[in-house]
């Protein structure tokens, strides 16, 4: 899948155009594909993108009317990029329209995992990663690394101030486990 990176060079003041490329860059970290078992295919890259987008949307969820408005704009930016990528792959328009439904389902699975009690959360995250296509199995060294990464990524996003994110200043400062 080809993601458009033109927004990286766009001098627009739209904050979602600054945040979305950060999400894409985190989803494209080589570590995820090399060491965590994420499939380096259009589907795997889309799954990784949806995970990272979920982390940001989850941080913004019900924080303020401004965060809700920003989330809608960010989703629109992501949808346009996915639509473009799917079109270049020859995916029919009817299937592209279901991206919102798929993303909502993905978010529901992740949200359900993260609300579990601490003792149950890791297993729930493992199951969510398998359900959402990022991990092939719940128990493997690759999945162990992916669970660790997801936990650190969520922590990093939740350390960021909502006002900074909606102003276009997402850092999502999390790196691969060995970097």
Please give the count of helices: 10
Number of domains: 1
Strand content: under 5%
Order of helices and strands: HHHHHHHHHH
Q: If you compute it from the alpha carbons, what radius of gyration comes out, rounded to the nearest whole angstrom?
A: 16 Å
The rough form would be described as globular
The number of E-state strands comes to: 0
- The average pLDDT is 88
Unreliable sequence segments = 1-11
Structural class: mainly alpha
Largest sheet: none
Q: Report the span from N to C terminus.
A: 26 Å
Overall helicity:
55-70%
Write a short abstract of this structure.
The chain has 179 residues and is an all-alpha fold. The radius of gyration is 16 Å and the shape is globular.
């Amino acid at each position: 899948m080809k993601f458009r990176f033109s927004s990286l060079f766009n001098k627009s003041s739209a904050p979602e155009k600054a945040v979305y490329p950060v999400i894409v860059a985190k989803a494209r970290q080589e570590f995820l594909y090399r060491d965590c078992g994420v499939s380096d295919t259009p589907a795997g890259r889309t799954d990784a993108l949806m995970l990272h987008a979920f982390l940001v949307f989850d941080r913004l969820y019900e924080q303020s009317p401004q965060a809700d408005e920003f989330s809608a704009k960010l989703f629109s930016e992501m949808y346009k990029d996915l639509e473009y990528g799917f079109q270049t792959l020859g995916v029919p328009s009817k299937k592209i329209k279901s991206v919102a439904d798929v993303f909502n389902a993905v978010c529901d699975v992740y949200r359900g995992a993260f609300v579990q009690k601490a003792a149950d959360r890791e297993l729930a995250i493992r199951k969510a990663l398998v359900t959402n296509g990022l991990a092939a199995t719940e128990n493997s060294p690759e999945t162990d690394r992916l669970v660790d990464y997801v936990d650190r990524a969520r922590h990093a996003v939740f350390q960021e101030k909502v006002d900074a994110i909606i102003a276009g200043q997402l850092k999502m400062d999390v790196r691969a486990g060995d970097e």
